[in-house]
Amino acid sequence: MVHDLELVSVGKTYADGTKAVSNFNLQVEKGEFVAFLGPSGCGKSTTLRMIAGFEEITEGDILIKGRNVSATPPEKRPTSMIFQNYALFPHMTVRRNVGFGLDVKGLPRAERDRKVDRILDMFDLTEVADRKADRLSAGQRQRIALARGLVVEPEILLLDEPLGALDANLRRIIQNELKLLQRELGITFVFVTHAQSEALGLSDRVVVMSNGVVEQISTPKELYLRPQTPFVARFIGANTLIEGRPLASEGGALGKAFNRIDTALGPISGIGPSGSTLAVIPAEAFRLAPEGQPGEMTLPGRVVWKQLVGATGHFRVRLANDQEIGIETHSDTARAQILDVGAVVTLGLDPGAVTLMPSNP
Description:
Layout: E1 5-13, E2 19-28, E3 33-37, H1 44-52, E4 59-64, E5 67-68, E6 79-82, H2 94-105, H3 109-122, H4 138-151, E7 156-160, H5 168-185, E8 188-193, H6 196-202, E9 205-210, E10 213-218, H7 220-225, H8 230-235, E11 239-246, E12 260-263, E13 266-269, E14 278-282, E15 286-288, E16 297-309, E17 312-319, E18 324-330, H9 334-338, E19 344-349, E20 355-357
Parallel strand pairs: 3-8, 3-9, 6-7, 7-8
Antiparallel strand pairs: 1-2, 1-4, 4-5, 9-10, 11-12, 11-14, 12-13, 14-20, 15-19, 16-17, 16-19, 17-18
Helix pairs in contact: 2-3, 2-4, 3-4
């Protein structure tokens, strides 16, 4: 099967021996929206630049539509890249900025004008087409950058934190527009961001990176509910991590009890292979309950911090082993309203919400 984009054991090592990216493997289908997510310096932008051809790879291969482009210069690749600072020409009008890539390709003027007019209309930029780019708002400049990247009709659009310079409200508006646009055009998007909300809300799959290594590639839902490594468990969402050791079944051997671990708080059940020693519990999986329900695990604790924000109640509860964990619940519940700092509580927990993994994979 031919993929829109395929990275095969791609790596980048700089002249001083620094490894920026190691053994990156990924297959992207046509029309898929994939986000690279991770902390600063994890290698996500370097990987995007290698796909674009702006950064030379030192290991592996990059294939687009089945063709190896590892040694192909950027201008010869069927990709277009949008940067955080938009990289617009301030002395040019909106129309000339948008059509710049078509001019480089040497398109006849009539065809260029037709394509530019169509994309300007799509991005609601027709009325400002003859203004200088530096006279427009941040939201308009962002749309200009998107229009310039898409007017050349790339096979793959690469976006390097394109919303990072926008304020929160405008960022949300552009996020919605970006997702709708991608679905309408059916173009493959590869999107770099350090914002979890963007990665989880926009993409079909998320690639989480740490120190140049891929930690997990999953759908947003799977990534949030079933992290596969301790790094992802700590990086995504607001999880509680509890250390433990495997519980042995009768006879001292791991058998049917392989999915339970013994912790300082007692046994915890979940899903996972034998030898799992780390229980990962999402903040919203806990239930503030006066008594446990059938099938639930219960953990005693004491409230040490409380804040009600809109519809959400945020609590910090100190468990019996002195570990403090975050709890999120609906602020309108009677339990959330009457609980104060110092209150003794019981936390109910569905074992199915727990993910078990090796603490040092």
